[in-house]
Amino acid sequence: MGKQKVFKLNEYRKKERTVSGLEPLDNGDRGARFPPPLNKVKAFLKEQKWLLLALLLTVLIYLLPTPRGLTVQGKYALGLWAFVIVCFLTEAVPLPMTAMLIGCYQVFTGIASFREAPRTFMDDAVIFIMGVLMMGAMLMKYNIHNRVALFMLKLCGARIERVILGIVAFCAISAGFITEHAAVMIMLPIGVGIVSLSGGYKKVPNLAKLIMLAIAYGVMIGSVSAPSGGARNALMLGLLSSLGINIGYGQWMLMVMPFTLIMIPIVSYWLLNLFSPEITDLSGTVQAIREEMEADGPMTNQARMALAIFLAVVVGWIFASQRFGVGNIAMVGILLAAVLRLIDWSYLQQKTQWGVVLLYAGAISMGKMLIATGAASWLAGQFLHLAAVAEVTEGVSLLAVTATVTALVTNTMADGPTVAVLGPIFLKVAELSRTSPLVIGVATSLASAFSYLLVIATPANAIVYGPGFLRAQDFLKAGGVLFLISLVLTVAFLGSFWWRVLGVW
């Protein structure tokens, strides 16, 4: 009779560990020695590491002593500022939910009451973004974007390099005269249409990112080229005028337009190399647009009315935005379209990216909070103090510091408030240091457009984020290099060469 092992010790041990809730222990697998609850905790910590980092920074700032010159509420505001930056860079929390946290934080820390905090979420810029998204949905409903896209592709050709250069150039040049809001509004439906007819985001993700960022960065580099390009420019003109420095429309363009013209090919080249498109020839897209338009037949009367409303809104933005605001003008257009039965509420409800609206509302609220608590002014003062310690007190070095500070701040709050907060400080510093206030002022306004890094930095970023083609990290990935190039170009070319040639300092 052969030997038979009646009791198998290894199997018994495995069974015992299973009954007790522990993983079977394998001598060759040291990673399995932790019980399931500990594994789950470990996995949670790994998954939520960025959220935990954001919370840690906030708690640390909250517990630190309040620095001299900063109020307690200002310190709490800086804690939220740090939390939001980490979340927007890493998407540790869905971006619209991060925006909701901004209001809750203000109430619980006593920065604002539960009645005041919701009011900070409302601004003309928020209404504008909502109106733009609705207007884009209306244009796409009647395939107007396809007609404009076909016209643009006929001008640029079907090669992707020429198309991207054409998008960046159109957005940049038009943004100086019809405001960046209108330029984004015109180009966004075209970009979405090209992506859709090229196979959709899942088939051409790089092409989708490439086109969306070309639109956003195109209007960014062009909105500073003329005083009419944005509120920041008009605000700086007013600040300079209060010092007795009057600068004309043409002089402003002469000082800043070279920056825009140089950046157009740089932005195009960088984005094309960073997001290598899956399709290099859009001939198939052109043919698809033609076939779709032939199937639809000629423009209907409803499509013509929709186009007329859109053009009227653009004209209103150009000539009446200073009086009525871009948001109100956009909403009048949407209301008119609804009255004429061109769109209905159920359609707008489905096609509007409400998360984007909430996201930018939160950004506006945070910007107002940083200003109201004095945190923004304190941050600017600390940067300038560090510059003074480093003996950076005048000339090109002062220009470099003020431009860098402005560019960093503008990525966490809108460009208009950035100039409103930093402009008076920097102009005063320029006066005291015997540096041209004109140069420092124009450079501050220019650097406030370098909103390359965060979704919340400018309405253009928030709008192109809406279709869902981009992640928050894409802005940091693509914008980091352009951010540095723009600063170097401002300081090394404009400040050190071009403005001296013009004799402005």
TrEMBL record:
GO terms for molecular function: organic anion transmembrane transporter activity. One of its GO terms (cellular component) is plasma membrane. Pfam families: Na_sulph_symp. The keyword S-adenosyl-L-methionine does not apply. The keyword Lyase does not apply. It is found in: Membrane. The chain crosses the membrane at residues 50-66, 78-104, 125-144, 164-195, 207-229, 249-272, 303-320, 326-343, 355-379, 399-426, 438-458, 478-499. Keywords: Membrane, Transmembrane, Transmembrane helix. InterPro entries: SLC13A/DASS (IPR001898). One of its GO terms (biological process) is carboxylic acid transmembrane transport. It is a multi-pass membrane protein. Belongs to the SLC13A/DASS transporter (TC 2.A.47) family. NADC subfamily. PANTHER family: SOLUTE CARRIER FAMILY 13 MEMBER (PTHR10283), SOLUTE CARRIER FAMILY 13 MEMBER 2 (PTHR10283:SF82). This is Sodium-dependent dicarboxylate transporter SdcS.
